[in-house]
Design goal:
Elements lengths: L4 H30 L3 H25 L6 H33 L3 H31 L6 H32 L2 H25 L9 H6 L3 H32 L3 H26 L5 H26 L13 H16 L1 H17 L6 H52 L20 H19 L6 H6 L3 H4 L3 E5 L14 E8 L4 E7 L4 E5 L2 E5 L2 H16 L6 E5 L5 H7 L6 E6 L3 H6 L4 H4 L8 E5 L2 H7 L4 E6 L15 H9 L1 E12 L5 H14 L4 E5 L7 E7 L5 E2 H9 L4 H8 L6 H5 L2 E4 L19 H8 L6 H9 L9 E2 L2 H16 L1
Parallel strand pairs: 1-2, 6-7, 6-9, 7-8, 9-10, 13-15
Antiparallel strand pairs: 2-3, 3-4, 4-5, 10-12, 11-12, 11-14
Helix pairs in contact: 1-2, 1-3, 1-4, 1-5, 1-6, 2-4, 2-13, 3-4, 3-6, 4-13, 5-9, 5-12, 8-9, 8-10, 8-12, 8-13, 9-11, 9-12, 10-12, 10-13, 10-14, 12-13, 13-14, 17-18, 22-23, 23-27
Length: 828
């Protein structure tokens, strides 16, 4: 071991790098199949970490100590690479099988578990076995255990590099296949280096002392396993909670998640290095482990305070950033400042736990496998318990209070057996009983933790509503929650009040009211829908133009409910018999949409309406129902995961679920975007709907947002027939609904025309097509988050305008009137 420590650290660095690339790629691939909900992610994370836990536990029991650890390690790495490529090529078949067998409810979750197990258990079993395999390269002495900690730190350093490499380069510039091949190449290189080192060294199994092995079953040793399990539970629980809260403050782009994960891993790696150094020098590793846990209470309280009271109010206006890289640097600094202390202490806990349990003559593989398995079991409980239970049921404030107290519980577990009276035997060799001062200190630490937990505050509603612009709008935001009838009207400061804030399974949402009467629904740290005239115009446009383009729509699917205005637009159409509203967060149709009942015609209580809690593409994948109209109004494309609702594959799925003559439409924002991003959105949609149309919601005030519209067949709009339809008595409610947002005739509605696919071919020539294989849009949109080029984008789209005589048919008078209206709009 002494001859090759740098080379061994390099092996662990490469292994960690490949593992994080695989994790990002596999979770992204499988979420596209089994769904983008928190439940689906929980199934995937639980399976991923469960496989690693089993691998670390089983290898020392199934593989003889007499096998050269470097050769075992090489075999594991080769196996991971081969299976990783196999998962990539096997995913289309997995997708087809899931489409036939998947669904909702308990049965659907079981199918998701099976899919996750088939895809993830084989490679993660091998991943989890790598550290115990290499552990047999060292002896279970103080120095040997110290090296084990350094190996773990090297693995985490590689994980940091892999996280940033995948998030900022491989998947942004290339695709999931390239990421897989790079990871497999790293596995192969690591295996070859390990085999070369094995050919130069011999490694004879150390004769183990049976008494040392028996000692592992003593009571004192089990307490360390419990403590490191609680440590893992708190660490993953904190990662879940902090990622959710920081994504609101920083903006939930794919880059934000990469930065948060990278900082967490940096902390674990630094802590592991520090803990490894301490493990090789101190005489009381168990006491040091307990001390780490007690300090963690303060570290978690620090992060909770920073997230609620510091980061949102840094004097930062994101719209001033000229380059996304400035924003990334700031986000990195904020994450390091807020969350680094906790991961450092959690990272130090692992090597200290190894040192606390080590004694000469043990099988190092069993030692490492046992500690790693206990830590991973806790991590699984933390990831699932906090994301699926604690946050939805009690909120992030309670979750953080629990996180403050959990490390104290771990400290008590690990230190209590050492608090023995004078003359009593030591709990373990080299670590005698602690004095009475430790007992007093432990009681004091518990009391301080209770005080810190009580001091944890909930996230301010301004962060939920306005995210990264909280400081910018700070002076306009009233403190606390108010009932809407308590909000003053007609002036006064502040001018924005929060009437509802909720933390659901899949997101945190808010509803605000301004003193001028504008009511807004907020998600992902921004306004998603409102009764502001410009938003109402868009929401009604999306619904009515889709319904009127079909001669008699009967079945409608609305993906993403929001304020329910788009869904409510279909309620007034007399031919509509069934409306399915699909939303990923149950709080939205249950709580938010009823707050807009006047604007949405109380849509959720209409007997024709069925609400489904699911993400849109998973619902379409698992339903056999077809529709006359499918509208999609998801949150902004820069939000991580939203790009899955804007891929060629998703649009093909929508097209396959349309009845003959059916209509597909969706919302697209021009604000907080740039030309490259919008080109990608349009070109991707037109790839599936080559006769597609862009309807602009600009209101003569420059660009803002738009509706994309498509049919399988070429669209023909009879101007006179549309007007006659609106003038019929059974469409009086439709006509009134349109008039409320400024559309007083069919010509008014159709004058929102901006372009059709055939006009934009030259402009979109260099567009990047967004597919399930690359999810390019979320990387493009994330780069343009703080860009405001909506007027420029609309100008580029309408630059090659010509009156679409192939689209609009009818009387000559009607065509001339529409042509004049379109010309006047372009000249404004």
């Amino acid at each position: 071991m002494r001859r090759f420590p740098p080379a061994l650290l390099l092996l662990f660095f490469g292994s960690g790098c490949a593992a994080l690339i695989y994790e990002i790629v596999w979770l992204q691939l499988l979420q596209l199949v089994i769904g983008l909900t928190t439940v689906s992610l929980g199934v995937l994370l639980g399976t991923y970490m469960g496989g690693m836990c089993l691998g670390s536990f089983l290898l020392p029991r199934l593989v003889s100590e007499r096998r050269h650890p470097l050769r075992v390690y090489a075999a594991l790495e080769l196996g991971i690479g081969v299976i990783g490529v196999g998962v990539l090529f096997g995913m289309p078949w997995v997708s087809q099988v899931y489409t036939l067998a998947g669904g909702s409810g308990f049965g659907g979750i079981m199918v998701r578990c099976v899919v996750a197990a088939v895809c993830l258990l084989p490679p993660t079993l091998l991943m989890g076995a790598t550290l115990p395999a290499m552990a047999r390269w060292v002896e279970t002495t103080r120095q040997g255990v110290s090296w084990l900690g350094f190996f773990y730190a090297g693995n985490l350093a590689g994980a940091v590099f892999g996280c940033l490499l995948a998030g900022f380069y491989l998947l942004r510039v290339h695709d999931l296949a390239t990421g897989t091949y790079v990871a497999a190449g790293i596995n192969g290189s690591v295996a070859l280096i390990a085999l070369e080192l094995a050919s130069r060294t011999s490694c004879k199994a150390e004769r183990r002392d049976g008494k040392s092995e028996d000692r592992a079953g003593r009571r004192g040793f089990s307490a360390v396993h419990v403590a490191i399990g609680l440590s893992g539970l708190a660490a993953l629980g904190a990662e879940v909670v902090w990622t959710r809260l920081l994504a609101l403050t920083l903006g939930g782009t794919v880059y934000t998640f990469s930065i948060i994960l990278a900082v967490f891993l940096v902390g674990l790696g630094l802590g592991s290095g520090i803990g490894s150094f301490l493990a090789g020098t101190i005489t009381r590793p168990r006491a040091a482990l307990g001390g780490c846990q007690l300090l963690l209470a303060g570290a978690v309280a620090w992060t909770a305070y920073m997230i609620a009271h510091s980061l949102p109010y840094w004097p930062v206006n994101p719209s001033l950033a000229r380059s996304p890289w400035f924003t990334f640097q700031l986000d990195l600094a904020r994450c390091l400042w807020a969350i680094l202390p906790g991961p450092v202490l959690w990272g130090a806990s692992f090597p200290l736990a190894l040192a606390a349990l080590a004694s000469r003559g043990q099988d190092p593989g069993r030692l490492v496998g046992g500690v790693y398995a206990a830590n991973t079991v806790g991590a699984i409980a933390g990831a699932l318990g906090f994301s699926l239970l604690l946050i939805p049921l009690a909120g992030t404030r309670t979750a953080q209070q629990v996180l403050v107290l959990l490390p104290v519980a771990a400290g008590v577990v690990v230190l209590a057996p050492l608090l023995r009276g004078k003359g009593q035997p030591a709990a373990e060799p080299g670590e005698g009983p602690l004095g009475g001062g430790w007992a007093a200190g432990l009681i004091g630490a518990a009391a301080v933790a209770v005080v810190l937990a009580r001091g944890v505050d909930a996230l301010p509603w301004g962060v939920v509503a306005y995210g990264r612009f909280t400081a910018t709008y700070g002076g306009q935001l009233a403190p606390g929650l108010r009932r809407e009838e308590e909000v003053p009207r007609g002036g006064g400061q502040p001018d924005t009040y929060c009437t509802y804030m909720g933390e659901g399974l899949n997101g945190t949402i808010a509803v605000t009211v301004k003193t001028d009467g504008v009511r807004s629904f907020h998600s992902a740290g921004k306004v998603q829908a409102s009764n502001d005239p410009r938003d109402m115009r868009l929401q009604r446009l999306l619904g009515h133009i889709s319904a009127l383009a079909h001669p008699a729509p009967q079945s409608v699917l609305v993906v993403a409910c929001g304020a329910g205005v788009t869904a409510g637009s279909f309620v007034v159409h007399p031919s509509v018999k069934h409306i399915v509203i699909c939303d990923i967060e149950t709080l939205v149709p249950k709580v938010v949409t009823p707050m807009f009942r006047k604007e949405n015609y109380d849509v959720v209580n209409d007997p024709r309406v069925e609400t489904v809690q699911d993400d849109g593409r998973h619902f379409l994948r698992t339903t056999r129902e077809k529709f006359d109209v499918i509208t999609s109004d998801p949150i902004d494309p820069w939000v991580k995961g939203c790009a899955a609702l804007n891929t060629v594959d998703y649009y093909q799925m929508c097209k396959a679920h349309l009845n003959p003559g059916g209509v597909m439409s969706l919302w697209i924002p021009f604000y907080e975007s740039n030309s490259e991003t919008i080109k990608s959105v349009l070109a991707t949609f037109f790839k599936v709907f080559p006769n597609g149309i862009v309807w602009s919601n600009d209101s003569g005030e420059g660009g803002y947002d738009a509706v994309l519209f498509g049919q399988a067949e070429p669209t023909r709009i009879d101007l006179d027939a549309w007007q006659e339809r609106l003038d019929r008595p059974d469409h009086a409610a439709v006509k009134q609904s349109l008039a409320e947002v400024g559309f007083h005739s069919a010509i008014d509605l159709l004058a929102t025309y901006a372009a059709q696919a055939s006009d934009l071919g030259d402009w979109m020539r260099d567009a990047q097509i967004n597919t399930d294989a690359n999810l390019r849009l979320q990387y493009l949109a994330g780069m343009s988050l703080n860009t405001y080029e909506e007027t420029k984008i609309l100008s580029e789209i309408t630059r090659s305008y010509r009156f679409p005589g192939n689209l609009f048919v009818g009387s000559e008078a009607g065509r001339r009137l529409l042509e004049e209206r379109l010309r006047n709009r372009r000249e404004r």
